[in-house]
Amino acid sequence: MVTPSFTKPVDDVLLVAGILKRLKAGSLASLSERIRCQKIQYFAQVLKVSSPYSFGLYLHGPYSPDLARDLFAMEQYSQTILDAPFVSEELEERFVQLQKFISNVKELRMLEITATLHWLVSEGYTKDSADKKVSELKQASAQELHKAHASLGEIV
Amino acid sequence: MTTLRKAKTGELQELFSADPALEKYVSHDKEKILVLKAEPKSMATDPLLQVEISFRKCERVGVFDK
């Protein structure tokens, strides 16, 4: 068997894959599933339960090419990835927070809008300028932006 | 290298007073303890996450003493 090549240490990638598995994500079969994986990992980083990947802003919001590469490289081992809880209670609490957040932001479009909004603010945009940018990029309505801010208010 | 072994009586207290973060890394059966010694760092910057990843790595490769 050829050892897969990862951009990060294998145990970091295993943690990422394990978190996705616990959240019933991780499949890369469709574009929407791949986008979902990216956004879950993005918010897992926001909540400090996963190893950091560098994200840039792409068509569907924050996206990490390295993460995409690592998830594809890990895909052949998906059956053996452990979905164990965190050893640390504090990390497990953070994970539960992520779980609640992801279950509250069910629609992929809302996940994209919320992640895009967060990414822009983290890059220095003010709330108003981030709203304006997301409206331009995603044609997000005022109601969608309001929902996105409300969701983000629960985790940041 | 990371050393993992069962904690001896009284040793946990000594270790935890030296580094309270270690207390979070006694495994669920309360028998295994992780002692970090120049473990190559993961990409994680959060200290808790670094230890978690090291712990999982040690479980994965089976370095816990039986």
Task: Give a nutshell description of this structure.
The complex is a heterodimer of chains A (156) and B (66). Chain A is built from 7 helices and 2 strands.
Overview of the molecule:
The complex is a heterodimer of chains A (156) and B (66). Chain A has 156 residues and is mainly alpha-helical. Chain A has helices at 10-22, 31-46, 65-74, 89-104, 108-122, 127-138, 142-153, and strands at 56-58, 61-63. In chain A, strands 1-2 form a two-stranded antiparallel sheet. Chain B is elongated. Chain B has a two-stranded antiparallel sheet. Chain B has 66 residues and is α+β, with helices and mostly antiparallel strands. Chain B is built from 2 helices and 2 strands. The chains are: A mainly alpha (156), B alpha+beta (66). The interface between A and B is medium-sized, with 19 and 20 residues.
Key features of this structure:
heterodimer, A: about 160 residues, mainly alpha, about 5% strand, globular, B: about 70 residues, alpha+beta, two-stranded antiparallel sheet, 2 strands, elongated
Strand and helix layout:
The complex is a heterodimer of chains A (156) and B (66).
Chain A: H1 10-22, H2 31-46, E1 56-58, E2 61-63, H3 65-74, H4 89-104, H5 108-122, H6 127-138, H7 142-153
Antiparallel strand pairs in A: 1-2
Helix pairs in contact in A: 2-5, 5-6, 5-7
Chain B: E1 3-6, H1 11-18, E2 32-35, H2 47-61
Antiparallel strand pairs in B: 1-2
Strand content of chain A: under 5%
Poorly predicted regions of chain B: none
Q: Treating each run of at least 4 consecutive H or I residues as one helix, how many helices of chain B?
A: 2
What is the string of helix and strand elements of chain B? EHEH
Percentage of residues in helical conformation of chain A: 55-70%
Order of the strands making up the biggest sheet of chain B: 1-2
Q: Return the average pLDDT of chain B rounded to an integer.
A: 57
Low-pLDDT regions of chain A: none
Q: Could you give the distance between the termini of chain B? A: 18 Å
Which strands sit side by side, in order, in the main sheet of chain A?
Answer: 1-2
